[in-house]
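Entry 14. Ran structure prediction on the chain below.
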Amino acid sequence: MKSCLVLEGGALRGIYTAGVLDYLMDNDINFDTVIGVSAGALFGCNYISKQRGRALRYNLKYRHNKNYMGFYSFITTGNIMNEKFCFDDLVNKLDRFDYDTFKKNKTKFYAVVSNLDTGKAEYKLITDMREKNQMEYLRASGSMPIISKIVNINCNKYLDGGMTDSIPVDWALKGYDKVVVVSTRTIEYRKKNSPIWPYKLVYKKYPKFIEAVKNRWIDYNNTQEELVKLEKENKIFVVRPSYSTGISRLEKDLNKIQEQYDLGYNDMKNKFKDLKKYLD
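Output, structure tokens:
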């Protein structure tokens, strides 16, 4: 039986996922494959490197550092998440990422990115985070449109994987018997249609990407309905917030960040017996 763990994004809402993953690490639960989208990939890589608590630790310590994430970074670099700080200083100096453990881990790790030319999701296998292109795929997965520069890799242009496949459950079901999904939204949440004009203005050279963004809210809501259906049929297992903390994507309140993490940890704790039963 092959198992896959699917991690939704949501910027700092994804600290919920970090809580879930830390509980799984505390109880030595592993999967054959992990696939992360946006923040799901950025926080999920710590699960592969077995660095319990790292995602929460650096977010609490550096959230108010102007060079981490926010308006200052966007104005000075064009990226809401500062590239040098997040993908060099943080991982190599301030809170070192365990590259060796990540590489040795037998669990496969995928990051979802959106190809601007095709308007489609691509699923990139990450095997060694020391390789520049592989780290770039991770960065691309979390590069939110409008407030991030396009990431160029091998003549291809990429942005946030959540724009084309927010929760890749269908991808997982094609190759795995047991699929566990960590969603960062409550069961009743559904997206609303939002203005498309900013994307038409910024990405006018990429009509297929604009079309994907235009349909995103419909695709997302359909996926949420699919999750509910598949869970009832016991085809997948879903962990999602038991209530909304009201955390924003770029949350600055450290207490809310901690609450979101604690919610993920405790929700997984409360569902752990059911998870073990499903996996067994």
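Residues 216-232 form the longest helix (17 residues). Will compare against last week's run tomorrow.
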